[in-house]
């Protein structure tokens, strides 16, 4: 991490930290006062999105349900990373061995799309910053299906998520979606209890 002066905040973003077993111990040894922001979304949607990204890089992959379930439609395969990442309660359990819950802010991925200013406002509050970024800084890009950030007056070009974001998801049969929802339900409820937030995925 770069040196940080008084009055500055240094931020670093790596999605894999939350699911990497050794990360909390290493981060705590580097800086026990670190504040942690975790963006989460419905784990079923997240798994399908993860699969869509894999498919864009490796077109010949087996179907989503062939990877999500062992032996066809047998038990859910938690060894598959697209499924395992969505077990948020298990990952948080590991982090809470090293950091108190007060060091975490859990951002709803769904609300980040539906109300970006509200969620970014929560981030600013959590970091002790003045609420500078507000709803006037966002507009909804219908093509991408995501909000984009308006640039400062010096530039007319808005800042949108990259082309890897907002890609269409492959069709997944409703029976597969329902089985995954049932699988995640107890983990989601535990996560709601642990965080004190109901993300409304059930």
Automatic annotation (TrEMBL):
Disulfide bonds join 148-160. It is an enzyme of class 2 (transferase). Its main location: Golgi. The keyword Ribosomal protein does not apply. 3'-phosphoadenylyl sulfate binds at residues 41, 49, 165-169. It is found in: Golgi apparatus. Gene3D superfamilies: P-loop containing nucleotide triphosphate hydrolases. Residues 26-191 form the Sulfotransferase domain. GO terms for molecular function: [heparan sulfate]-glucosamine 3-sulfotransferase activity. Keywords: Disulfide bond, Glycoprotein, Golgi apparatus, Transferase. One of its GO terms (biological process) is heparan sulfate proteoglycan biosynthetic process. One of its GO terms (cellular component) is Golgi apparatus. Its EC number is 2.8.2.-. Coiled coil: none annotated. This is Sulfotransferase. It comes from Nannospalax galili. The gene is Hs3st6.
């Amino acid at each position: 991490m770069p040196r940080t002066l008084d009055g500055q905040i240094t931020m670093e973003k790596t999605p894999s930290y939350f699911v990497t077993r050794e990360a909390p111990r290493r981060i705590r040894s580097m800086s026990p006062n670190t504040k942690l922001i975790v963006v989460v979304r419905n784990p079923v949607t997240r798994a399908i999105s993860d699969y869509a990204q894999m498919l864009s890089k490796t077109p010949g992959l087996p179907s989503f349900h062939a990877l999500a379930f062992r032996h066809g439609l047998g038990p859910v395969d938690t060894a598959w990373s697209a499924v395992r990442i969505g077990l948020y309660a298990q990952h948080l359990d590991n982090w809470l061995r090293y950091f108190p819950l007060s060091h975490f802010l859990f951002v709803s991925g769904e609300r980040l799309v539906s109300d970006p200013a509200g969620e970014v406002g929560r981030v600013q509050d959590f970091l002790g910053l003045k609420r500078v970024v507000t709803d006037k800084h966002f507009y909804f890009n219908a093509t991408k299906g995501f909000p984009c950030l308006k640039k400062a007056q010096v530039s007319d070009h808005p800042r949108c998520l990259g082309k890897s974001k907002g890609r269409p998801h492959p069709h997944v049969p409703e029976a597969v979606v329902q089985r995954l929802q049932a699988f995640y339900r107890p983990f989601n409820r535990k996560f709601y209890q642990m965080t004190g937030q109901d993300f409304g995925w059930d």
